Amino acid sequence: MASISTTLPLLLSLLLLLGRYHAAQAPQPERGTYIVHVAKSEMPQSFEHHTVWYESSLKSVSDSAKIIYTYDNAIHGYATRLTAEEARLLESQTGILAVLPETRYELHTTRTPQFLGLDKSADMFPESSSASDVIVGVLDTGVWPESKSFDDTGLGPVPSSWKGECETGTNFSASNCNRKLIGARFFAKGCEAMLGPINETEESRSPRDDDGHGTHTASTAAGSVVSGASLFGYASGTARGMATRARVAAYKVCWKGGCFSSDILAAIESAIQDNVNVLSLSLGGGMADYYRDSVAIGAFSAMEKGILVSCSAGNAGPSPYSLSNVAPWITTVGAGNASNATNGNLCVTGTLSPEKVAGKVVLCDRGLTARVQKGSVVKSAGALGMVLSNTAANGEELVADAHLLPASAVGEKAGDAIKKYLFSEAKPTVSILFEGTKVGIQPSPVVAAFSSRGPNSITPQILKPDLIAPGVNILAGWSKAVGPTGLPVDNRRVDFNIISGTSMSCPHVSGLAALIKSVHPEWSPAAVRSALMTTAYTVYKTGEKLQDSATGKPSTPFDHGAGHVDPVAALNPGLVYDLTVDDYLGFLCALNYSASEINTLAKRKFECDAGKQYSVNNLNYPSFAVLFESGSGSGVVKHSRTVTNVGPAGTYKATVTSDAASVKISVEPEVLSLKENEKKSFVVSFSSSGSTQDRVNAFGRLEWSDGKHVVGTPISINWG
Fold this sequence. Notes:
Layout: H1 2-25, E1 31-38, H2 50-59, E2 67-71, E3 77-83, H3 84-91, E4 96-101, E5 104-107, H4 112-115, H5 129-132, E6 135-140, E7 181-186, H6 189-195, H7 213-222, E8 226-231, E9 234-239, E10 247-252, E11 254-255, E12 258-260, H8 261-274, E13 278-281, E14 283-284, H9 294-304, E15 308-312, E16 331-337, E17 341-342, H10 354-357, E18 361-365, H11 371-380, E19 385-389, E20 407-410, H12 412-424, E21 437-438, E22 446-447, E23 467-472, E24 474-477, E25 496-499, H13 502-519, H14 525-534, E26 547-548, H15 557-560, H16 567-570, E27 575-576, H17 581-590, H18 595-602, E28 624-627, E29 635-645, E30 650-658, E31 663-668, E32 671-674, E33 679-688, E34 697-705, E35 710-718
Parallel strand pairs: 6-10, 6-13, 7-10, 13-15, 15-16, 16-23, 18-19, 19-20, 22-26, 28-35
Antiparallel strand pairs: 1-3, 1-4, 2-3, 5-12, 5-14, 8-9, 11-12, 16-22, 17-21, 24-25, 27-29, 29-33, 30-32, 30-34, 31-33, 34-35
């Protein structure tokens, strides 16, 4: 008995120790960053301020969670770290509209002013204070303030409307801002919550740009005039932004680890409060409904404040349904190829044998890895040069890169011919001739192969992209913290760099919007976008349609939207399709969004009128996306629109063209006589005969003309 009684306490102690050990080893629930959207109007009366309510609601589900950001302009709510269960419990509370997980966005990685006609039309754009009062906010990787593109010579005082500041941090002080770069902020809390503290030995925890992308986009939108700009002597000439007298405000939201939605919302929050006029975002993420998309939500709030938001369409082309940023209150910009041209082995790491390629020129195929990375692999293997061949995905589109060794890019046809020569010739030879920069290449522009394409996967009745702008081989300012290739082995440093992407086309439109805003400060964001879209062109001077560089065939509105931007014509569009906040709210009702989903976007209670019939087809958008039900495909679809005359009094007549023989398109009325600033409505009816279709999509165009102005809108027709 004595031995049993002695053993029992020992056994109990051992079990307790084992229990503690297992408890200590039990995995803790994983935490993630969440963005909490709240209905401020539902704050309990017991709280004096909404921030106290936020703290209390958070503490009710987690003792350890802290608020990362509090938002009041971009959204109503806050960002915090929670477990999935805590997020679920929080979302069930009264007044909490949604608890959305953090989203990681990616960047959509100078002769264009001349190409666009801006150099010939300086007298059409004001040099007065109105031009220099416009502020372009750029959400990107920050800014290299020493770039000549941000020289403030000739600019007057900072606009009195500006409420922002120049934040200090690693390698950046308030003195880095001036009358051109009037503000710079950085937002890292979301990134750090996900990935840990910023490594300040690798990147600056400040607005300073260590990547180059942000400096490039900011200088493209509103950089000052810089003569003698080039990249190693190529594309030599004058570099200038689209709106040279506009002011720049840089908001650094992208880090080596990515661009996180909590940081992006915090930047939009500040930009709204700072009083920017245009927001430029050359980034995107996965597709989501508008009430779950942080960029769409923040852009809605900016639009409400009269800020035009321009976003890149993405670089996932030429695949269909590859667009980003498709909300109708966002101007979605695809990429075209301007008239600049600078000259099956994938050449990935470990695939080249030095004994076979040393001292030779290597032919590589595009794909799988970055173009400049292929050059680095080829150089490391001891080769003297590289010829980079396009594949079917790239067609004949040539993209310039600052390679680490002598290199030349060729289109798919030339690449196939070179391969045929290599396989048929016992001792093939090669010479690379560098012939400098070629301008006036025809046809130009063409839709870039990489530019993302429609249809719109979220709302097919809204045609996207909106338009295209130069996005291939763009020369603009660069960061001295990184080489032109961005590769760690690249020790070269340049003032300007040539890169491509819808990241480059987006700031073109942002800057052009700033120009138009300076001439027409009273115009809404929708009116500015309408002017850019309805004056865009879809044919060359020869009368032939814009080409798609991926196929070599004519492009469609799913590729180019309304067409290629024409800023000179956009200053005087004749008619515009305007939109108000209430119009967008009606659009959300047409999508059958719930009251809480609308509240998430609009930041206020809005009840859809049960007695009103809402239709997505009637959003006053400057394009038409017509959907016939799958099956017979017959029936009639009607779209109503209203135009506002922003020019002199005139009479406009409608003309419709279409490549769909089985669809009859009629406009009622066909003639509109408008006084100055007068609004008039019309209805477009699309009648399908239901005959067998040999394709899913067809396209057309509606034009209103008074003999001087041509107000064009693209049409897409889909039979599901």
